[in-house]
Design goal:
By secondary structure, the protein is of the alpha/beta class. It has helices spanning about 5-15, 20-25, 30-45, 60-80, 85-95, 100-115, 120-130, and strands at about 135-140, 155-160, 165-170, 190, 195, 200. The longest helix has 22 residues, at about 60-80.
Length: about 200
């Protein structure tokens, strides 16, 4: 982005024995798809507010604020331009940055509701999530167990009287670890835990 190619690399590329553009089309699903991908990438590359070459010179707080700013700008652009599905994937790839809102919200939080939520849950939560009225993350990994699902210690116990779920991480090793964005950006989370109802554990 805005850089120059080293002469030696340029020389090697010019001497290759195959059509570079044809290979590009092959790798990205054909000419039409490649051109679409390049168009979406250009939207990011031509916008000075979305530049990513500055991130190597920022401290942690500055990087977080910079990422939030770019994420919000990107969400607004995608909504205005109608970039969904593959176009949204291309847009996020072009940003090439850890995005506090979009990444886990779109790749884990929403898909989990879509695939594992009840009809009522999907009807209620998906419009809120897709319109970014809530920001979600995915809390699975625990300090003592990594992503070993059967070993998770966090429990979700159904309280029949209040008709509520009571979440509990009873030990240090059951601490949810690495739930991207949780506590800093996210307002909601899908929490993986051991299910308990009527005193019986269901895993």
């Amino acid at each position: 982005r805005g850089g120059t190619v080293h002469p030696a690399l340029l020389c090697e590329r010019q001497q290759c024995s195959f059509d570079v553009r044809a290979l590009t089309f092959l790798l990205y699903g054909g000419e039409e798809e490649t051109l679409r991908r390049e168009f979406v990438f250009s939207l990011v590359e031509c916008d000075p507010e979305l530049r990513t070459d500055n991130r190597f010179y920022l401290n942690q707080s500055e990087l977080y604020e910079d990422s939030i700013r770019k994420d919000v700008k990107g969400i607004q652009m995608r909504k205005e331009l109608g970039l969904y599905g593959k176009d949204e994937e291309y847009f996020l790839s072009a940003l090439n940055q850890l995005l506090p809102i979009s990444r886990l919200h779109n790749t884990m939080f929403i898909p989990m509701i879509e695939s594992q939520g009840t009809s009522a849950q999907r009807e209620y939560w998906l419009p809120l999530a897709r319109d970014y009225k809530i920001i979600g993350t995915y809390a699975q990994t625990e300090l003592g167990h990594g992503s070993y699902i059967r070993g998770l210690e966090t429990t979700a116990t159904y309280d029949v009287q209040t008709q509520e779920w009571v979440l509990d991480s009873p030990t240090l090793t059951s601490t949810k670890w690495w739930p991207g964005g949780l506590g800093k950006t996210a307002t909601h989370a899908v929490v993986m835990s051991q299910l308990i109802t009527n005193g019986q554990r269901y895993g």
